[in-house]
Fold this protein.
Amino acid sequence: DQIRQARAMGLKGVEISASVGSRELSDPAFDPVWHAAEETGMPVFIHPLGTSLGPRLSSFYLSNTIGQPLETTIALSSLIISGVLDRFPGLKLVGAHGGGYLPAYIGRLDHTWRVRPEARQCRERPSDYLSRIWVDTVVFDPEQLRALIARMGAARVMFGTDYPFDMADCRPDTLAEALPAQDRTAIMGGNAEALFSL
């Protein structure tokens, strides 16, 4: 109901953490949320609030440096593997922090899908679902951004800053300066404009 109310109020998208308490976003209890998001066409931005790894990441700010992208990776991976994207093919998901480690390690997820029966709950290879997910540019490195675009396609990457958090990069446009003009235009505004119907 809240997603439908948000749409009725004119909001263009909603944000959710990478898990809800101890529940993964792939928990069937959240199917009504995914149904409402799909039905309304409301994009869902997944941005972790904290990390579940606790004391191991309590030093050196690893809770953010490693923990935040890992939480995004877990959320997106479980949504793919569990079959949520099969059940809700029109769902529009956006993963923070460049989709975490998922784009870079999608080959490992594909291998797991091939060899482990518990990972075969989705109909297609996990990498086939990347074309149905958007990610932001918050990767802080031009080479990594180019690799992200090569894996995801320029149409699935969009400008992000991580504002107002302390790790925010309020000038990530400088990462995109070396990109081809068409990709730069899409990433710096065109993709978000289309996704959020701006």
In short: The longest strand covers residues 133-136. The chain has a mean pLDDT of 92. DSSP finds nine helices and seven strands in the chain.
